[in-house]
Each structure stands twice: as structure tokens, then as C-alpha cells.
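Record 1 of the preview.
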Amino acid sequence: MFSSISGRTVKLIRRVVELAANALGLELIAKWRTYDKPLADTLREMFGRLQISTVLDIGANEGQYYEFLRQHVGFTGIIHSFEPDPDLADKLIAKSAIDPKWKIHPVALGPSPGKLEMNIMNTPVFNSFLAPSKDQPRLGENHDLNSNAVRTSVLVEVKTLDDVTTELADLKTTYVKIDTQGFDLQVLAGGPRTVNQIPALQTEVSFRSLYVGSPTFQESLEAFGKAGFSVVDFFLVVSDHESMAAVEFDCVMVRSHRTPPAVQTATA
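->
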């Protein structure tokens, strides 16, 4: 029966249902959007309050974060995406032709400039400078444990965060997202000037390591805390399907406000 309903009719029905939900103070969203909605809502409010005009997408992979910002956050500013995997970078450059505010940089970011061997995994989202740990969690009912296994390696160019932000107009309205599969603290180490000026950032913290030598969540929070940032919220990325234990979270952070010195009052 439903196969005979036209697309125009479906849109009309959807619009009527949305209006009814709004009248009741409810928001109607597609089921597939429920996963990313809390993060999207947080960033939308944060970007407005901090007047964010530029986002650095460090670890762009296939452009998932770009699409998330444009489609779900509603961000219309400039996005600089950094992706060192040559194959993925070429695809991003082709995709970016439709958006003049999307700039692709085919490099990695790290603690110092140079070149490093990058592990290309069976599933590209797991690409990392680090080797995968032997104890891999099952990240979904149908997850292949060989997804995070090294397929090959490639020598890639590495720059520092401070190198690539020298030409940005205003770091005080720039948001930095870091998702480098266990390499986030090395990115942080290469950007002391940058992190001293940006108002907020996003990093991935691990409760269970997917890579040899990747930082624990305590080490990550301590490092970004020392850089002057406080946690806004955590957003679950993946959990172990078998144990139900959390594996990784996206952590949104904002620059800490320094407490003003106590006012000294005169005593009688």
C-alpha cells in the first residue's frame, strides 16, 4: 500500500507531523540522526556563543566531520580538513570542488615537521601512526575484528598545528577538532601558540586503547587541562558490543575562565 504513495505526499505527511510535534513542544527527528544529535546541538550552541567562523578538521578521513558540520550543525563557515592518506586526500579534494569554503590539506599534524610512516588499515577510519593493539574490542554486532589490522603503510608529510595556523585570520574564533586515532596529544604538542588562542576544541579520549602507546583518557584530560581547557561534555563514539563497556568518547572542551583574585575588604 505504501509503495503507491508519491514522494510529494510523503513530504506533505512528514511536514504535517512535524508541525503537530512542534505545537506540542516536541522535536521530530529521523531515527538515524539520534546518534549525532546531542553533539550537533552542543556545537550549534557553542559555535553561536563563541562566534566560531573557522573549523580545523584534523583527521578528516572520508569527510565525515565536514558533512556532520554542514548537514547537522548548520555551520556555514570555513572548514580546513587535514588528511595525510593520499587516496583519501585525493577523494576529498575532488569532493571539495562544490564548496569554496572547504579547504583540503593533504598532510598530517604532529609534534614536529617531517615525514612519518602511517599505517593504512583494512578499514580506513582506523588509519593511524600507531600499531593496533592485540586486544581489539568488538565494536558492533557484525564488526570484523580485522578491520583495525594493518593493510599497508605509506610515508606522509607531517606539519605542526602552529605551522598551519600562521595564516589564519583570527584564532579566537577558530574551533579545532582532533581525531587522529591515538595521536591527538602529539598534535597538541605541535601547537602551543594555537591552543593558547583558540576558545574551544574537540578530541577523542579512550577508555580502552585500540592502539599501542595511545594515551589513556586520564592522560588526555590532564594534557588538555594543562593547556587551559575544561570539559563541556562527553559523547560516546563506540562501545564493546560484547561487554557493553565504553571504548571511546568525543570530548568537547572550552577554554577555562581564570578565577579573579579575591577582593580585599577593609576591616574596621
